[in-house]
Design brief:
Distance between the termini: 12 Å
CATH superfamily of one domain: DNA methylase specificity domains
Largest sheet: 5 strands, mixed
CATH class of one domain: Alpha Beta
Structural class: alpha+beta
Number of strands: 24
Helix content: 25-40%
Number of helices: 8
Radius of gyration: 27 Å
Length: 425
């Protein structure tokens, strides 16, 4: 059994007795090679949660430069760091580039003459996984580390043979873990697709497979049971929206009143909101207090957000990006209405307006949306059936997500133990 010693660094813990910790600058140097007029000779690269990937120069997602002459060159086998906005723990930080190309000048590039930097990559990934960069970067929205800070970070000084052995071990183990995670992720996606198709089938066709059908008159709804009706939401519900208290006034948010925003809507039941406002905050926003059993729909945020919904089961105010739908109870059972709104998720964009990048809908769009209307008894049966089936699917999804989280935690601990010598390989 290998003899260990205290490293003297709290986030590293013990290391093998014969290991040394030296500053990164003993193994790497920083270089910022601005591409300039050679911009057309290189592809664009980006540091993502999946590592360093190729990215089109025409990709318009996120903030984009007008020109790429100010970008820097990243070469194959070099380390790249994104150590800005360290308050945000859910973003990529470290990459080992498999390509040569261009990256943002805000990135830190570390280079050396080694042929294989995989061990160092895993070392810095251990720091990333354990949020060490975030702890070292201080507090505040501008929390960051610069190239000098990285150069002074401690790394193990071990011989090349041991580096390679640890890297090979982690490559093999992490590859197997990632493969299992990918399979579990695919199963989750299939379960979600099944759930969506189930809702679509039941809220447009009902529960009786032998019922006589008719054309709904709406292309994307298709055929519906002959006894069902088609109407617009404005004929079966009232709609309203809300507002946002000034973010600069603290007392508006120091309260216990539920306040729901568009990004809180994930297709689930809302029994309490994460965000709260005070009575004075509620007084200054437009909109009224929404009652339980109304359905909330996101109107802003582009294709990824528009149409996201929730079934309110508490009293709450909303922001201006949320449309509240209060169904006439003699016509629509709220839970059935919620499932129909979930079905409509993929169709709101047909009527959205605005830029290609950020199209939105309005209350008027919601009012004009078509809605299926079975009898109240059928609505109750459909809502009960979908509640039971969706609960079963959601339970399976949750179990798969728990497996993925355990695998991710195992991967993190495996990397930590290997690169700090606690696990002998």
């Amino acid at each position: 059994m290998r003899v260990m010693k205290d490293s003297g660094v709290y986030w590293i813990g013990s290391i093998p007795k014969n290991w040394l910790l030296l500053p990164t600058k003993r193994f790497f140097r920083t270089e910022k090679r601005i591409v300039g007029d050679s911009v057309n000779e290189y592809e664009r690269l980006a540091l993502t949660m999946q590592g360093v990937i190729k990215r089109s120069k025409d990709d318009s997602e996120g903030l984009q430069p007008e020109k790429f002459e100010g970008y820097q060159i990243l070469r194959e086998n070099e380390l790249v760091f994104k150590l800005i906005d360290l308050e945000n723990v859910k973003t990529s930080r470290v990459g080992l580039s498999p390509y040569t190309g261009l990256v943002s000048p805000a990135y830190i590039v570390m280079t050396n003459d080694h042929k294989d930097n995989r061990f160092f990559y895993y070392w810095f990934m251990f720091m990333y996984y354990n949020e060490v960069f975030n702890q070292l970067g201080g507090t505040g929205v501008r929390s960051a580390l610069n190239a000098k800070d990285v150069c002074n970070l401690p790394v193990p000084s071990i011989d090349y043979e041991e580096q390679s052995r640890i890297a090979d071990y982690l490559d093999s183990k992490c590859s197997k873990i990632d493969s299992i995670i990918e399979k579990q992720t695919q199963i989750i996606e299939k379960l979600k697709e099944y759930k969506t198709s189930l809702i679509t089938e039941v809220v447009t066709k009902g529960l009786d497979p032998n019922v006589e059908m008719k054309d709904s008159g709406v292309e994307w709804i298709g055929k519906i049971p002959k006894r069902w009706k088609i109407s617009k939401i404005k004929n079966v519900a009232k709609t309203s929206s809300g507002g946002t208290p000034s973010s600069g006034i603290k007392e508006y948010y120091d309260g216990n009143i539920n306040w729901v925003c568009s990004y809180d809507l994930h297709g689930s039941v809302i029994t309490e909101s994460e965000r709260k406002i005070s009575s004075s905050g509620a007084d200054v926003i437009s909109g009224t207090l929404q009652s339980p059993n109304c359905v909330l729909v996101a109107m802003y945020g582009g294709a990824g957000t528009v149409g996201n919904c929730g079934l309110l089961q508490c009293y709450a105010y909303t922001n201006q990006a949320v449309c509240s739908i209060s169904f006439e109870k003699s016509l629509i059972v709220p839970l059935f209405g919620f499932y129909v709104i979930k079905f409509l998720k993929e169709f709101w964009m047909i009527y959205a307006v605005g830029s290609r990048k950020d199209p939105n809908i309005s209350q008027e769009t919601v009012k004009e949306m078509y809605f299926v209307i079975p009898s109240i008894d059928e609505q109750l049966s459909i809502a009960d059936y979908l509640d039971r089936k969706c609960f079963q699917v959601d339970t399976l999804i949750k179990k798969k997500e728990q497996i993925i989280e355990k695998l991710k935690e195992y991967k993190k601990s495996l990397i930590y133990e290997a690169v700090t010598g606690k696990r002998e390989v």
